[in-house]
Design brief:
The chain contains 3 helices and no strands. The protein is about 85% helix and about 0% strand. It is rod-shaped. The protein is mostly helical. The longest helix has 25 residues.
Length: about 55
Amino acid sequence: MDDLYAEVMSLLHDTGAFADWQRDKRLSQTVSDSRNVAISDLPASTSGNDRLSDAMQ
C-alpha cells in the first residue's frame, strides 16, 4: 500500500496535478472564508439563509 501511495503521489507531482489540487483547495478555502465573513457582517435580524440570499442579490 505504501508503494502505491508513493507512486500516486509521484505521478501527481510529476504531472502538476498536486499543485493544481493544492491551489484549488486554497481558493475554495478563501471563498468559504470570504462568504463566512460576509454573512457575519449582515444584520443579525435575519436568518443565515435569508442573509445569504439577500447578500447575493
